[in-house]
Amino acid sequence: MMEYGFSAEKINKDSSDFVFLSLVILLSGLGIASLFSASYYYGMVRFNNSSYFLTRQLVFMGTGFLLMLIVSKLPKGIFVKIIPLLLFVSLILMIATLIPGVGREVLGGKRWIIIGNLSFQPSELVKLSLILYLSHILSKKKDQKNDLVNGILPPFIIVGVFAALIYMQNDFSTAVFILFVALSIFFIAGIHLGYFAFIFTAVVPLALMLLFSKEHRVRRLIAFLDPGSDPSRAGFQVIAAKIALSSGGFWGKGLGLGTRKLGGLPEAHSDFIFAVLGEEAGFIGIAVIVVLFIMFAARGYSLSRKYYEKDYFAYYLMFGLTTSILYQALINIAVVSGLVPVTGIPLPFFSSGGSSVLITFIMCGIILNFSRNVSSEGSRE
Fold first, then answer.
1. What are the residues whose beta carbons fall under 8 Å from the beta carbon of 84, sequence distance 6 or more?
2. What is the tens place of the pLDDT at every residue in 365-378?
3. What's the rounded Cα separation, in Å, for the pair 167 and 1?
4. How far lies 5's CA from each of 2, 74, 377, in Å?
5. 94: how many CB neighbours lie within 10 A of its CB?
6. Alpha-carbon distance 296 to 274, whole Å?
7. Distance CA 72, CA 304 (A)
8. pTM score > 0.85 for this model?
9. Alpha-carbon distance 181 to 321, whole Å?
């Protein structure tokens, strides 16, 4: 198994994977163009500046791209070394959001830390921290992968603690999301399927109980099953998104020519930007976006597979990071298409945001880092 260190001779200077980098750049460029089209009206109405969200996103993406390049060149050993620090910082920030005066409530969820004009959503950092932690601990305890007490429970408890903290922020969907990502990493680590049955038996009833514990979640579920039952409230976004998608037809109305974003589709620049894409780019446009995300995931998984039986930490890590970005894309697209209830999961590279953009680019930077010359690294265990 590969040994990680900081000596200069161990830093691989080969180029990162060109195909993966090209897909990141292409998705980012399409995301910027789509965001400007989806946000210029809202920016003018709310901030008297049609370029408000575009300017912010360019800053975030520019910073994220720079971070991605830096991360892609770091010694690989640093990713193991920083895991305890990342977990600690993530825990402190998550707790801080629950402290009055520190955490800020936005759209019913207390998920943000605001310092001056800057804001950060700690749950985004949690996604990265947990993927790094699980990849390391499961590779380190590979011989104990079916040992419930020593191999499975410790990492699952850590995941459970962070999921509980996210839930306490009134962010049920992200709590469920990190559980699914974690279980995906457990699965490729070879955990016995019987343990998954046990986990689902324990978690599903609890999740259902928590789902029905809040009125707004029940309303979202009802709106998903029957949007017409509450068309002016819980079902409004679902109905508006479906109208936008269907009105685009095959070729779409043209970039910038959509009308649902002009006040008829809440969060058109954020969680529901895919609906704007559907109206303006049509079926052909959204098909291209879906294919690009599939290509992105396929390349990420292909790169991770090259580490199989050479370096399980790298294998799990690249798989987990790719899965996290792919799941976000699939969930967002499914929400907008009316296939699952409304959540607050953004569309990577497209939705307006700071925290999610930066963490997404850092994740891509790690994948690019480990993509360098994977075929010649490591030795079989």
1. none
2. 999 999 986 644 44
3. 37
4. 10, 11, 14
5. 23
6. 17
7. 15
8. yes
9. 9
